[in-house]
Amino acid sequence: MEAPAAAAAESSNNTNTNGGGAEDEGNTGGSSWWRLPERVWLSAVRSAETVARIARDDPRRVAHSLKVGLALTLVSVVYYVTPLFNSFGGSAMWAVLTVVVVMEFTVGATLSKGLNRALATLVASSLAIGAYKVASLVVRSEEAESILLVVFVFFIASAATFSRFIPEIKARFDYGVSIFILTFSLVAVSSYRVEELMPLALQRTTTIFAGVAICHCTTILVCPVWAGEDLHKLAANNLDKLAEFLEGMEIECFGENARSKNLEGKNFLHAYKSVLSTKDKEDSLCTVAKWEPFHGKFRFRHPWSQYQKLGTLCRQCASTMEALASYVVILTKSQYPEANPELCLKVQTTCGQMSLHSARALRELSSAVRSMTTPSSANNDLSAAMKAANSCRNELLEDAAQLQVMHIAVIGSLLSDLVMQINEITESVHNLARLARFKDPEKTRNDVVINVKT
Amino acid sequence: MEAPAAAAAESSNNTNTNGGGAEDEGNTGGSSWWRLPERVWLSAVRSAETVARIARDDPRRVAHSLKVGLALTLVSVVYYVTPLFNSFGGSAMWAVLTVVVVMEFTVGATLSKGLNRALATLVASSLAIGAYKVASLVVRSEEAESILLVVFVFFIASAATFSRFIPEIKARFDYGVSIFILTFSLVAVSSYRVEELMPLALQRTTTIFAGVAICHCTTILVCPVWAGEDLHKLAANNLDKLAEFLEGMEIECFGENARSKNLEGKNFLHAYKSVLSTKDKEDSLCTVAKWEPFHGKFRFRHPWSQYQKLGTLCRQCASTMEALASYVVILTKSQYPEANPELCLKVQTTCGQMSLHSARALRELSSAVRSMTTPSSANNDLSAAMKAANSCRNELLEDAAQLQVMHIAVIGSLLSDLVMQINEITESVHNLARLARFKDPEKTRNDVVINVKT
């Protein structure tokens, strides 16, 4: 019996873990320097392969890179064309800065950052000018005024920083708050130096708005990548993957040619695994999809959070599949004598029914989502599967005593697994203690004794 | 039988889901405007409570907010004190900008961002000056020169943006690359306007270094929050939580007062749940901990990635516990007649042994990690648990036929669960179809028919 769920989801996505394992492999040394050119060449080839794979996996990445280049070129052109340059003034660099930080992969993320930036700049500039006016009204001397402004900066920056710990603000306005702090500090601080504060603030705000406008136009008009569309496709794909697992189960485990011995290598047994690790991607896509305007078949207020609910259910389903997969592998590997063949056959038949009909129901749902048509409300496959599930439960319940022993046996078996896992944990802690040079308790005790003696 | 693992981990951390559920609750309306002041007051109280809770949960958040305020104040003072201001020139704003974006919660994150920023600025300025020199050597006319520079900006920005999709670069240098693009574009573009490029680039780089230095001093000297220490504590806490679950199991399920009926409300049954969702936190802490210098008991090259390995094992353990918890709850709720009481008693006793000894072994490990002492290598508790696990397995294997029926029954039971979950998925897709106004296939077909007729 393998440990179910979560653990598997981890293996797919741990670049960090691999990237940082250098501590353990310190003694590969004794490098032969004359093979250096060969090594350099090999690593160059490997890098090129990585780049090609990343581009092939999602060609929109290449398009995005070129889009960033394009947006920056547009800003530079604005800067170079002198009449425009004059109207933007020396703060044209703010447009460049805006483009670099605002351009994101999806339309939603770019819009969200751009609007955050524009709004935060406006609010912060107004507030800073207000603070400047208050300071100049309250005190007379220039020193006192600048001290008051620094005090304002201290308190407003602290309060705004704290607000970033509030989950609601963190989720939607994190970037906006940091721009707010930046702009407020800059305008408040520069107020002491610059006589004409209002025109400066106005000029900078205009430049930033121009930068944001260039970003928004580029991201929407040139090969747009809609977060909402990605989220929608992800939902349909998840449903398909769940169906794939059940189809495989039906054919390989409960069908006529069932009881094949080598299940572990089969693809269908891993179909659900990628579903388990979709949560983060789904959440971030959903957050930014809410900023996207009407596009394709999606309205502005499309019910994006429904996709999160659906995703949670799919992941729950996938983790039950994980448990199921490990039991099936054990069963096909074991060489038990046939016991209670009647019950086994009955359960096997209903299992086949359940898998087949559930898979069909899922396929219907995924194609409904894909084509954005309402799935038929009288789903025959689902009701057939539910019927089979009930009859399976009844068959098992018939022998209630059997069921109790089964539950106790499963608990015993899971606990034995736990002990083995704790054994691994112990080894891991010992490794950590060795590598991190933890104190040796024996030695420490001796030291203490010696200290007492001396 | 509940679906194991992942699903539970999700419930703990879904502010986004709740935050965005507004679509579904559109009809709370009919608001009575005279109750507006009351509502405003209530929501103000609620916000104050949230803020107080966030501050109480981790007082270091308040310290961090004040630190950001302090760092900005320091920069502002530098700006106001005129002799210093002259040496920094008009680019003092770059120091403000640096402080706002570089100050992070943990020392490691601040160091990582600061070093990224400093290094990227240096490299990008040099490269941009190089590009400027090349452009002025290759072509004669000013127009051609600026066109060439814009072309440089386009290609370098595109290539650098693409490099952010490479996982290794994304993990460690994402911020650095974005600063690289920014600085390169700014310097390359401004080269056309500013005659003395070198002094300008030098001045800006110096200012940014000063900002980074202020951030690093503030973050290390004033209430430092070490990511490494948090990671270390997280590991010990996870071990304790696993132990807590097993201790509860021993007392409530296998001990002398076992078979208590109301297990579901017990705390210990949820002890492991927070362990399941620690992966993201662990990964990000580990990434930044690697940037931290020697502090407390931690060396510079402390084996941080070991904590990730330990964390993966702990989460695997927690997901087995999840499966175990659901079986235990079912068993204590069920009213089966006693079947094979001899086997049940035997398994129960060994289960008690396994839980007790495993819990003790885990407690020893957690206290070893906490005090950073090597755990004793001859762990008596672990070997006792292993012995009990083996004897439990043997007891179960004695009745092999029983075991086969058990596995088949478990598979049948898991599949029935799956069908019920797919039923929920179906409902969720129907909800989505309704809210997103999917096309009705019937209607569409009729439309087509009409179209054909006309």
Automatic annotation (TrEMBL), chains A, B:
Localization: Membrane
Instruction: One GO cellular component term, please give it.
Output: membrane
User: Where do the record's region annotations for Disordered lie?
Assistant: 1-31
**Transmembrane regions listed in the UniProt entry:** 66-85, 91-111, 118-135, 147-166, 173-194, 206-227
Checking PANTHER family in the record gives:
ALUMINUM-ACTIVATED MALATE TRANSPORTER 10
Its record classes its membrane topology as:
Multi-pass membrane protein
The entry's protein name is Aluminum-activated malate transporter 1-like
What organism is the protein native to? Panicum miliaceum (Proso millet)
Q: Keywords in UniProt for this one?
A: Ion channel, Ion transport, Membrane, Transmembrane, Transmembrane helix, Transport
Query: Low complexity bias: where?
Result: 1-17
Keyword Ion transport: yes or no?
Answer: yes
The reply on keyword Protein transport is no
Q: Which family does it belong to?
A: Belongs to the aromatic acid exporter (TC 2.A.85) family.
Against InterPro entries, the record matches this protein to: ALMT (IPR020966)
